[in-house]
Amino acid sequence: MTSPQHIVINDVGPRDGLQNQPKVLSIEERSSLINALIDAQLPAIEVGAIVSPKAVPAMAGSTELLSTLPANASHYSMLIPNQKGYELGRDAGAPVMSLVIATSNTMNEKNIRRTTDDIMQQSMNILAQAKAENQCVQAYLATAWACPFEGQMSLDSLLSLGAQLLEAGANKLIIADTIGAASPDQVAVFMNKLVTEWGSEKLACHFHDTRAMGLANVYAAIEQGVREFDASIAGLGGCPFAPGASGNVATEDVTLLVEQMGFRTGIDLEKLISAADLAITLTGTAQGGRSKRWLEKNLASVATN
Amino acid sequence: MTSPQHIVINDVGPRDGLQNQPKVLSIEERSSLINALIDAQLPAIEVGAIVSPKAVPAMAGSTELLSTLPANASHYSMLIPNQKGYELGRDAGAPVMSLVIATSNTMNEKNIRRTTDDIMQQSMNILAQAKAENQCVQAYLATAWACPFEGQMSLDSLLSLGAQLLEAGANKLIIADTIGAASPDQVAVFMNKLVTEWGSEKLACHFHDTRAMGLANVYAAIEQGVREFDASIAGLGGCPFAPGASGNVATEDVTLLVEQMGFRTGIDLEKLISAADLAITLTGTAQGGRSKRWLEKNLASVATN
């Protein structure tokens, strides 16, 4: 008898989700959502971003928020845009910090007014410092399959940027379809190459449902050996640079998919539904995952944990 | 240079979709929806069902409806529950008639109060008559992966029933996840076997999005060589025997998926969006496919035809 394989789901609702909601939540509300996810035994949660509160009001006070959370109750990560963010995150005790590098130069220039070379140089410096200071830093490779400005992206830039980041000590690479543009055949081609190159333990995927292909993309990545995924409670989110873009794949949908495929997530589905209800109440805009209604009626029939 | 492969999409909105809507449409309204699908160049459309108007008011007058449609503008099919239905369909000039056999005996008994043996015997008789009369009859194998009463189904009954139906002259088998219960790994296992056994030209798949896996299941079936799918304009539908079940996979979502994968459908996406808008207006309940909003803004960037 072999024990079932595990898939790690990282809930990015409290960051990628809330950042793209029209309503700005208080630190207490954000904390309550994260605690609901902890109750549901999410193994990893992106709790916030250390960014200018002027630029991103929804993420104001993220280090303060972190200090309200129970220590080690989940694998907490925080997004950092630069070295100052790294130092603030380190000082606040962020267990994992996430860099973001778009594989598209135009996206980097439009999004953060820096070239890819600039942002890579900064990332290498942060990774070197993190190594010296024994901090865990991972990197998002954004617009991995397509960029709203440059269109379809090549695998070459992904391979080149990813190799440099891993070499510099990045703990993991999260390959992100930032604008929800990839189709599952494209996901299969890229992830097949990346898993072969770097191994699945160094990789995660991040999908949006903009073109309705989010879950198909998760499946395509699993087939290539990917075992870690970002997802967002109740499907919170979107992308501010792509109006009309849907949110991240919903945590409840991804959890049901992988559990039914025979993987184990450790997530408590009943409490996950409660967390989704809370996300819907707090934001007033989230819809909940498409499987939520079915899940509510059939919790007993889904084997988890 | 190889020419792109083709995928056939059969819109079942006017039958499987409307049959499960709370609002009963008039024949004129149903005809207007079908004509919008014809305008969008849907290659196949399930236009109605020849059933008792008492039992299924939404499908009343389906042969009359057929007579209002332009001849040969699409591959029209009609669902028939028995020999009387076959004869009415034949006399009305239905180009294709569809039998439905659940692979689950309990489902057959609950749904139509007959055993699988009974319904198979009836189906064999109809297929024999259709062969003698040169009529095109295909067969749905319903609850192929799972039944609400019996749970997960085995591949054996599917193989046995399917072989008998093909042997008796069924033009095609449509493997239907009637209650939207299958996950893509399960779809891959079954369709791999069936395509190997009977060839993809004898097969189509029919998926519902109840557990949010509809598009992932379409992708999994494509990977196994399936090249024909049912879908429902604007995601109309559901299953009356499974409250809370979502509708069929939306035609606009399936079309976008397969076109982006490099297949050709022949469908005019702009007119497809108009047909979805009409379905939403007529029913008052349909939501539209999840990709619809993105598609509306990005029609120009999607290469079709």
Automatic annotation (TrEMBL), chains A, B:
GO terms for molecular function: hydroxymethylglutaryl-CoA lyase activity; metal ion binding. Keywords: Lyase, Metal-binding. Transmembrane segments: none annotated. Residues 7-273 form the Pyruvate carboxyltransferase domain. One of its GO terms (biological process) is L-leucine catabolic process. PANTHER family: HYDROXYMETHYLGLUTARYL-COA LYASE. Belongs to the HMG-CoA lyase family. This is Hydroxymethylglutaryl-CoA lyase. It comes from Alteromonas sediminis.
